[in-house]
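Researcher: Go.
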Amino acid sequence: MYKYHCLNPISEVGMEQFTEEYVPVSTADNADAILVRSAVMHDMEFSPNLKAIARAGAGVNNIPLDRCAEEGIVVFNTPGANANGVKELVIAGMLLASRDIIGGINWVQENEEDGNIAKDAEKAKKAFAGCELEGKKLGVIGLGAIGVMVANAATHLGMDVYGYDPYVSVESAWRLSRSIHHAKTVDELYRDCDYITIHVPAMDSTKGMIDKDAINLMKKGVVVLNFARNVLVDEEAMVDALVSGHVKHYVSDFPTPITAGVKGAIVIPHLGASTEESEDNCAKMAVKELRNYLENGNIKNSVNYPDCDMGMKGDNTRILLLHHNVPNMIGQFTGILAKDNMNIADLTNKSKGEYAYTMIDIDSPVPDGVVEDLVKVKDVLRVRIIK
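Model: Structure:
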């Protein structure tokens, strides 16, 4: 039996993917796996029994990834599961920025007791006039699951779309519309586009990438949309640009004291993935990832360990080793197994930065002494056996 604990409410549609082999527990103390959405885990102490954490969403800033890696805990996220929900809100954000829909709605509410409101609206509406999206240039920074969907949808609105992503995956490239223009540098987008939307992860290399220098390269009257992470934008520089009129609107899904209430800032309360469908999709993917890892040892969509897949575990015993990515680890593992005359039916090894993962299928039982020897190998962080 496997035990799991949910730190946040997780969609029942996802929970239904667990079989009778899985039981929920009220605390994380002895859980094999944890499911989480927004709960902050940095101060949590993890049980030696904890094998995996699955974030029902894409961002993992609330999870101590390095500490988990060092403790042999695999952290998963669910990239793409909420992409459509975010894409739809990005399109809505562009419409809100191009037409003063919010101002118009507020005018109607403020004049709700006006018995002549229909006639007066005809006079007032010119104050809320805007422009159409068709024919405008959209720059998409980051062509992952969400960026590709936004870019493709914008083409159907008649926009001239430019994409920039030096690390675009083969999968994303296949899904990208042929009508998307490829920008060789991000500065191209800054200089030429009427709308710029950013869809990259928050890393040291991307934090604050939309700064004063980037904004100065942009066209006067540009609209900047940020539905990725608030730290990607230097918000003080953005507020200065809004006040000066250089940026017409900053549409953000991340309320902060810096941008809330600023004229020209359209700030949404983090609704990007807040749809029933997105929450269901994230939960289902998270449970699928946990089950595949706990039952078969396979890793897919981990943020701190490499993807590694040897298919369904058959009759063989499967040895799983999480370790540092250093030379001669495979030689040490196979040497220990050979010493006990154990035959390796299959083996695979993958690495990701400082960490690596080795899966070995053995066509015989694994003696306790072998497990003890594997655990003692320097740079081994955890050993699991699936019988």
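Model: DSSP finds 13 helices and 16 strands in the chain.
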